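Example S7 (structure tokens).
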């Protein structure tokens, strides 16, 4: 019975053969492949030619005679980029780090203290809204900046960030600046409502940090 079933089973289908390509199709495909390879070589050649042209142009430009100041600027630029890569400033690096670290902390605390004293206990409040009976202050620390306490806080915070080499603290200082800027805008709207003279005072007095001329006057 098994033998009969095997004899009656249909033959397996013949495998399908891929259609044969004509000679013209083969030649067309070969020509297309050759064209693509030549185009790729042409692109590589164009890139090499363009790069060589840039190199030759730079060499030619560098060889042009330059004035003294132009050479000094380029040399200074190269030196600063090198120091940036090295991450250290020889000879004066320690002094700069001290000045921008502990120095700024001390300067900021001093500005905060001066601002608190000049503002007076009657005006002092942590809130953005001025106290009732607020007195307009335009002398002392307030003759240099409108918000010496906020400015001192930002300076001290920056110094602490530099002294501790903390990028995260610098990021917090930036966020603190944004917050204090928004808070001071609210305060100044209220102060303009209470003191009409505040508008004129605001136009001639910086917000957080004194100008270079005023800073020179403070240091003197």
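Recovered sequence:
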């Amino acid at each position: 019975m098994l033998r009969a079933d095997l004899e009656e089973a249909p033959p397996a289908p013949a495998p399908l053969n891929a259609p044969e390509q004509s000679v013209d199709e083969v030649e067309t495909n070969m020509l297309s492949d050759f064209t693509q390879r030549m185009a790729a070589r042409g692109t590589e050649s164009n890139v090499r030619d363009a790069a060589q042209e840039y190199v030759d142009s730079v060499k030619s430009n560098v060889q042009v005679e330059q004035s003294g100041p132009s050479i000094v600027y380029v040399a200074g630029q190269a030196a600063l980029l090198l120091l940036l890569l090295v991450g250290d400033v020889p000879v004066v690096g320690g002094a700069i780090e001290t000045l921008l670290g502990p120095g700024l902390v001390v300067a900021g605390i001093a500005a905060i203290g001066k601002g608190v004293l000049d503002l007076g206990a009657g005006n002092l409040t942590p809130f953005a809204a001025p106290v009732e009976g607020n007195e307009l202050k335009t002398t002392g620390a307030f003759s240099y900046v409108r918000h010496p306490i906020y400015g001192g806080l930002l300076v001290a915070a920056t110094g602490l960030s530099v002294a501790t080499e903390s990028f995260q603290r610098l990021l917090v200082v930036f966020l603190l600046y944004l917050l204090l800027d928004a808070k001071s805008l609210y305060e100044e709207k209220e102060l303009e409502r209470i003191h009409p003279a505040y508008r004129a005072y605001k136009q001639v007095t910086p917000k957080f940090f004194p100008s270079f001329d005023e800073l020179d006057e403070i240091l003197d």
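Notes on this example. The chain has a mean pLDDT of 82.
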